[in-house]
Design goal:
By secondary structure, the chain is of the alpha/beta class. It has three domains: about 160 residues, 2-enoyl-CoA Hydratase, Chain A, domain 1, CATH 3.90.226.10; about 70 residues, no CATH class; about 30 residues. About 55% of the residues lie in helices and about 15% in strands. The chain contains 13 helices and nine strands. Helix 5 links the parallel strand 2 and strand 3. The N and C termini lie far apart (about 90 Å).
């Protein structure tokens, strides 16, 4: 019995040792991979995707004999295209339309990825090319959307022709981004504008005072803190807070006015929103139409390529991200509901 226990103990020690070695190796490999770039650039030519779908639809209505003939014809067309494309392209066929997507939340969280996508394009885009941004955002934090808009300004400074397509909403910070483009196209009922600044915060000072709870707020600098959630707010603090909002609003108006000089900025910078069919009349956008229709039109003249940088995440990161996104999604819905409250007209 003692010999069996000794052998079992030795076996158990070997298993534990082996498990520890494997765990250390996995940790080292994971750490090494953590230093690598786990992003992947996904590129797709929409012309080919559309042609493939249209071919499938045609084939679906044919009998076996005609389907076989059509497949041969399609293969011949593809071979001729490959054979002739390098040397016989005209100026229109050489042009490329690069398509990016930006779906904004309160913090404009997609900005880092968007910035990298633009950096990649700036190294390959030619003078005849165009960059189309499919934009959707109800706005959010001023500094976050200021940075996102600055990414589009990089294309502007490089003299790259840019078009922003808005199918649903580009309001407030979303419009701050949209106005950086050479041309803005929006669907008939897309929401645009909301050129204004808003801030709100609760104050529970009276509740705390009622329960004999004191809050000490110590600052160095007269306006280090203007309004607070816990402390007693002063009239001076409120006036300073409003001055800051007005200053931000003036910067917002100046930014839009520089990029769309045809706008009567004082008339549209009231915080109001307009739908696409209305926005074209006051100059907020240039034309009414959907992004799908625009890209379909461009496919007759150029290659249309979607570009997206996809980030690969580890299991732990995915689990943590899922939890945080659940909370953030809830907050986002509350924010959007509040914002949308101003869009419902009677």
């Amino acid at each position: 019995m003692k010999e069996w226990l000794a052998e079992y103990g030795m076996f158990l020690a070997q298993v534990v040792t082996l498990a520890l070695i494997v765990a250390v190796l996995i940790a080292l490999i994971g750490k090494a991979r953590g230093r690598e770039d786990h992003s992947r650039l996904r590129i797709e030519e929409l012309n080919k995707r559309l042609r493939g779908r249209q071919r499938r639809l045609r084939l679906s209505g044919m009998d076996r004999k005609h389907r076989k003939m059509a497949l041969k014809r399609f293969k011949k067309e593809d071979k001729n295209e490959v054979r002739t494309s390098p040397d016989s392209e005209d100026e229109h066929q050489k042009q490329t339309v690069w398509v990016l997507d930006f779906k904004g939340d309160i913090k404009a969280s997609a900005t880092p990825q968007f910035s990298e996508e633009i950096s990649a394009l700036l190294g390959v885009v030619s003078e005849s090319d165009e960059v189309v941004l499919r934009l959707e955002s109800p706005g959010g934090l001023v500094h976050a959307y200021g940075l996102a808009a600055a990414q589009l300004d990089r294309l502007r400074e490089a003299n790259v022709t840019t078009t922003v397509c808005v199918d649903k909403v580009a309001a407030s910070g979303g419009y701050l981004m949209a106005c950086c483009a050479d041309r803005i196209r929006a669907a008939p009922f897309a929401v645009l504008g909301s050129i204004g600044v808003v801030a709100q915060l609760p104050n529970i000072h009276r509740l705390l005072k009622k329960n004999d709870i004191d809050v000490e707020l110590l600052t160095a600098g007269r306006y280090k803190r203007t309004l607070t959630v816990l402390g007693e707010n002063t009239e001076e603090g409120r006036e300073k807070f409003l001055d800051d909002l007005e200053n931000t609003h003036e910067l917002f108006k100046h930014y839009v006015g520089e990029r769309r000089p045809q706008l009567d900025i004082e008339a549209v910078a009231t915080g109001e929103i307009w739908y696409g069919s209305e926005a074209v009349k006051n100059g907020l956008i240039d034309e009414v139409g959907t992004s799908e229709a625009y890209l379909l039109e461009r496919m007759t003249q150029a290659r249309v390529m979607t570009v997206a940088l996809e980030k690969k995440r580890g299991l732990a990161e995915r689990m943590g991200l899922a939890a945080s996104m659940g909370v953030e999604h809830g907050l986002q819905r509350v924010y959007e509901a509040l914002e949308a409250g101003g869009w419902q007209r009677r």
